[in-house]
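Entry 14: structure prediction run for TRZ/ATZ family hydrolase. Input pasted below.
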Amino acid sequence: MINRRTLAKSLGAALAIPATTTAPATADTRRRRYLIRGGAVVTVDRALGVLPRADVLVDDGRIEAVGRDLDARGAKVVDATDMIVMPGFVNTHHHMWSAIGRNYVADGFPYFAAKRATSTLYEATDVYRSVLLGLAELANAGVTTVHNWSNNTRSPAHADAELRAHRDGLLRARFSYGHVDQMPRDVPMDLTDVDRVRSQYFANGTAFDGLVHLGINLRGLSQSTEPAFFADMEAALRRGLPIAIHAGQAPPRIVDAADYERRGWLGPKTLLCHYLTALDSDMEILARTGTPLSWAPHSEYRLGTGDPRDALLRFRKAGVLVSLSSDATSIAPSDMFETMRLVPEAGFRDVLEMATLGGARALGLGDVTGSITVGKRADLILVRTNDINLAPGGLFETTLVQAATPANVDTVFSDGRIVKRGGRLVAYDVDRIVRGAKASSLRIRTAAGGILTPPAT
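Run finished. Output tokens:
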């Protein structure tokens, strides 16, 4: 097993992120004063609701005003005619280190087999390329905030590579430092490097101009023994950072919410994912303690047992804060439109809130993003309604949940910066990102051999 303490000491300042960028030389990603004019504004703010025609004024990354015929002299006008303006999506559970492995699965060779065959082969350069590929894909699909659930943080250099990708990726995020995949179940996690990362990048609480905050994800009892997990939890709690845990998709029931509550482990800073085995009593405790849930519909239906639909309905009935996520790209696409359509028996307004404001609240960012509210940061997307799959239009929330796809996303603002415009990513060198991803994927597939060996050309 890699000794992170030794690596952290030996590498030290040499691990600082170099000053490179993936943005095209012509891209302008500065925050400006913008007037988004004449769109149908779906605010996901219960006090404002849906405005059939309105303007949104953005200045230096902040939402300054929302309303009709705003006076915004000096602002650059973004015409939103025949578009829906909405908050950017929030994906609360995404294993971004493996984005380049989206197509490693095959018939008879599913997700966990592919992960076991490749996870130890990722070098720091590979995870940089993978996370950046994932961030660009998210931006293209209208996701402006992501929880990077980094559950293969193999060394300090790997952690730095992921953070370098976040700096270049320009999206809002939580980076949750995790374990080394396939480490022994009975060995506690070494969280020494979390302290270095926190000091080096998050001394002011956030990194990269306020876009990224730090968390920890733990293996839970699905991947560790009870003594090891208890040691992991104590070490994480001492650091006072948000904690994320996989709560299980199949029996046995590995999370006893009553026990977690007695130990002081639950609350708004603990995010549980999946938890298909939860009892009604567990759900009531999560609701009472304000412990949020990340629900990944594709993953729950494909990898879970029992009745995922029934479990989600019971979570919602109990009043648990439910957010939406995609898990890993080899399980599901980074497409929150499709994810919303897999949520059972929820109204269009409710499911849209789960994909935006609910996710922001689950990550502790409810006062920052998730709705079009004056004072929040400008994480916004514009969706074309004249596209063939959305015409002839109708109720705006219905349109977004029932029919829209990433292809309809015309413009994306991340913290007041335009990263997609006219249906094209403008803040990323897409060709370079794809070339790097292909190079890393080919190297890993070749090293893994067997079923992953690419065909001869």
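Notes: Residues 89-362 form a domain with the TIM Barrel fold (CATH 3.20.20.140). Will compare against the previous run tomorrow.
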